[in-house]
Every structure is written in C-alpha cells, then in structure tokens.
Write a structure and sequence with these properties.
This protein has 102 residues and is of the alpha/beta class. It contains four helices and five strands.
Length: 102
Amino acid sequence: GDIQLTLSQTIPLTGAIIVTTPQEISLIDAKKGFSMFEKVNVQTIGIIENMSYYNLPDGSIDYIFGKDGGKNMCDELGIPLLGQIPINKKIREGGDLGKPVS
C-alpha cells in the first residue's frame, strides 16, 4: 500500500518479506505488494504464510483458511516460502498481554 511505497522511496531497502494468509483475498493483496516492490526495485526475499493451519487435539491438521495458498503463490512468482505459521491460541493470548511467545 501507500505506506510501503513511501518507505521504499524514502529509505533504501535491501529486501522485503511479505506476510499473507492462505485466503484468496489476502493472496491478492500480497501479489499487489510483490508487484509494487518489483516496480521500485526492492527484492522480495520471500513469503511467510500466517494462520496456515490449526493443530487439532487429536494430532490432525485443519486448514481453516485453505491449504497451500502461500506456497502456490511462491511457486507462481518464483520466490521462496520462508515459513508457515499455525494458528495458536497462546500467540493471541501473548499478543493481548503484550508478552512475546517463545
């Protein structure tokens, strides 16, 4: 968006990491960000997919927001998928309390 464009024109950036979720609407925005960084000659280092899945108590995985949206986008754009972060209640609780989760 506008903030990223202003920063990339004001501060010499060496690269960008784009964070998305597997949802189509988020992937559309992430692709727009990739294109914007490309236009201002800022290399996209890779993608991090947040809220990728939920680990169920029985050990299985639920892909609440869809599966592999970030991976498929990376394959399409030729950039690495840096990681997939699961939905985790402790992360939300830590954020609400201002305490980092390790």
